[in-house]
Amino acid sequence: MARWIAALAGLALVAIPAVANETRSSRLLVWIFNLEGTLDLAAAITLATVYNAAPYMGPAYWIPAFWVPALLVTHYITFVILLKHGRRQPGNL
User: Fold this and answer.
1) If we measure between CA atoms, which residue out of 41, 26, 25, 28 comes closest to residue 75?
2) pLDDT digits (tens, 9 = 90+) for 44-87
3) Which terminus of the chain, N or C, has fewer Cβ atoms within 10 Å?
4) Contacts 24+ apart (CB under 8 A), 28-33
C-alpha cells in the first residue's frame, strides 16, 4: 500500500510540471493520475466499510467526512474536463 501511495504522489509530481509546461504527455499523465486516484479512493472506502473502521477513527473522523467527498468531486470534475476537452491541443483547456 505504501508503494501505491508513493507511486501516486510521484505521478502527481510528474504531472504538475507537465501540465504547467503544456507538454504533449500532460493529458495522459492527468488521465492516469485521476484514474489511479479514483481507484485509491474507492479501495479506501471499500476497506473502511468492510473492516468497520468508523468506531476506531476517533478525532480523525473528519478525513472521511470531509476530504473523501471533496476528493471524489474533484476527480469527477477532472474527468468531465478531460472528456469535454479531450481532443483539444495542450494549452487550450
Assistant:
1) 41
2) 999 999 999 999 999 998 888 899 999 999 999 999 999 998 66
3) N
4) 30/78, 30/82, 31/82, 33/8
Query: Grid coordinates in use for 78?
Result: 477532472
The DSSP output letter for 57 is -
pTM for this model (two decimals)? 0.81
Rg (CA), the chain: 16
CA angle, residues 56, 57, 63, in degrees to nearest 5: 160
Pairwise CA distance, residues 34 & 32, whole Å: 5
Dist CA 65 CA 55 (whole Å): 13
d(CA 46, CA 88): 35
